[in-house]
Design goal:
Blueprint lengths: L2 H20 L4 H33 L7 H18 L15 H19 L3 E3 L2 E3 L9 E2 L6 E2 L4 H7 L7 E5 L5 E5 L3
Antiparallel strand pairs: 1-2, 3-4, 5-6
Helix pairs in contact: 2-3
Length: 184
C-alpha cells in the first residue's frame, strides 16, 4: 500500500465515522460495525493463511500421508494466535498493541519457521527434524531390459514396505512420481 493510498483510506474512514455520528448512530452501533469488519478481515486472512499453509506443505513434500500433521501444526499456530487475542471491548484496543521487541521476536520466529518449512524440515515431538534424502542409481535388468530402482532398507522400513509388496507408480505430470503400496 502506498502512502497516498493509506492516507486516502484513513481519510475515508474518518469521513465515514463523521457521517455515522451525524446520522445519529449510537456508539454501540459504530463499535459493532468496526468490530465486525475487523473480525471478518481477521477470519478471511486466517482462512487464506490456512489454505496457503496446506498448499505449501504439499509443495514441500509433506503432502500425502503427512498433510494432517501439517494441518495440525497450522491449527496449533492459529490457536496460539487466537489465545493471544484478548476479548474485544477494550477502549484503546490494547489487545492489538505489541512492543517493538515483541513484534521483532514474533517476526523473527515466523521467518525462521517459514525458512525451515521451505527447506522441507518438519516438527516432530516439538523439535525440528531435517528431511532425509536418499539417492539411488537406476539399475537395468539384464534379461528384460526393465529399469530397476532399488529402495533402501531404511526407506522401506519407514514407509512399511516389504520385499513382495506391490507398488503403484503414479505420475504427477510435473516431473515427480509417487510410489504407493497397493492394498488388497
Amino acid at each position: 500500500m502506498t502512502a497516498d493510498h493509506k492516507d486516502y483510506a484513513l481519510k475515508q474512514l474518518e469521513n465515514f465515522l463523521y457521517d455515522a455520528m451525524s446520522a445519529d448512530a449510537t456508539a454501540q452501533e459504530i463499535y459493532d460495525v468496526i468490530k465486525g469488519v475487523v473480525e471478518d478481515n481477521y477470519n478471511v486472512y486466517k482462512n487464506a493463511t490456512q489454505k496457503a499453509f496446506e498448499l505449501h506443505a504439499l509443495l514441500n513434500g509433506i503432502g500425502v500421508g503427512h498433510i494432517s500433521d501439517a494441518i495440525s501444526r497450522g491449527n496449533k499456530i492459529h490457536q496460539a494466535i487466537d489465545d493471544c487475542m484478548q476479548p474485544w471491548g477494550h477502549s484503546d484496543m490494547e489487545a492489538l498493541k505489541y512492543t517493538d521487541e515483541e513484534m521483532d521476536a514474533m517476526s523473527s520466529a515466523a521467518e525462521e519457521e517459514e525458512e525451515l518449512i521451505s527447506k522441507g524440515y518438519f516438527k516432530e515431538n516439538g523439535s525440528w527434524k531435517k528431511p532425509k534424502i536418499w539417492t539411488v542409481e537406476i539399475q537395468m535388468d539384464g534379461l528384460t531390459g526393465d529399469a530397476i530402482i532399488p529402495i533402501p532398507d531404511e526407506v522401506a522400513d519407514i514407509v512399511g514396505w516389504n520385499l513382495y509388496d506391490t507398488l503403484e507408480w503414479i505420475d504427477n505430470k510435473d516431473g515427480s512420481y509417487i510410489l504407493r503400496k497397493v492394498t488388497k
